[in-house]
């Protein structure tokens, strides 16, 4: 088990600087998720840790050792890619043991490691099969097993579930979480899927344009987003963002919602954006505001209600099973204690 310490990391492809002076400390034994949209630099960062990309500046330490310029084979890492990259003519056992055999690992040790990984990943009955005889989920398990047999200090995952259907993603997500609990290894996982990030991570690193926007536990990042980008990127349905202007008495006004902010939180004339999670909008008969229902999405155990109030669109998550139809007018309120308030100019959170 090893930690990873990245300081002042810069990566350029020609004139394009993809990673910009990035600092990141990955603790021993944690499950760290790099989250962000396509092109934000998360996979580039992961590949630089693996030694697959040369860095332009800064340093990468793994297990206390400077690995900035080390070969991938010297870094003590195991990596799982988005594509399974299995050898089609080899059995599951041969695929999992290939790297160990090339490294000259004793036969008995190879057998021990393969059997241990196969048991963890429920692959024991499949060791004699070839990839063409396996489902997508089984193939990804083999790819994970191939990394596990290295018994590395750090495991790197580059969107390993993105090629699977929703049901398989949910199953393997759960298995990866259990695997981390069993091994206690340091794991760094890249995804653009917020559900994967929220369910797997000890901590989430949200990235945009090669720059870290926020680092925190899933609860911290979701409940207290550092800026408008983080607020809008996490959450399904997305957070309601309501532009407002602060009046002289501290009341924010936008024509739909007028709310009193705590003293000192904002100044008169300031342009703000209120972040209201859909689950914090309450449909109740004595609500302070009225809205017209535009659309209702049944989701099984809850409904997502899309409505407008004074020209402002709002989404609401409703769990009580009531029947709601498009066109009706509903009274609603919001839990002001759970509001996120952002400065419109800087897009930063106001504490």
From TrEMBL:
Transferase: is it a keyword of this entry?
no
Ranges for the ABC transporter domain? Answer: 4-234
Keywords on record = ATP-binding, Cell membrane, Membrane, Nucleotide-binding, Transport
Transmembrane segment boundaries: none
* PROSITE patterns the UniProt entry points to: ABC_TRANSPORTER_1, ABC_TRANSPORTER_2
GO terms assigned for molecular function: ATP binding
NCBIfam families the UniProt entry points to: PRK11650.1
Q: What is this protein called?
A: ABC transporter ATP-binding protein
Q: Which Pfam families is this protein grouped with?
A: ABC_tran (PF00005), TOBE_2 (PF08402)
Enumerate the InterPro entries for this protein.
AAA+_ATPase, ABC_transporter-like_ATP-bd, ABC_transporter-like_CS, ABC_transpr_MalK-like, ABC_transpr_MalK/UgpC-like, Mo/tungstate-bd_C_term_dom, NA-bd_OB-fold, P-loop_NTPase
SMART domains according to UniProt: AAA (SM00382)
Any keyword Nucleotide-binding? yes
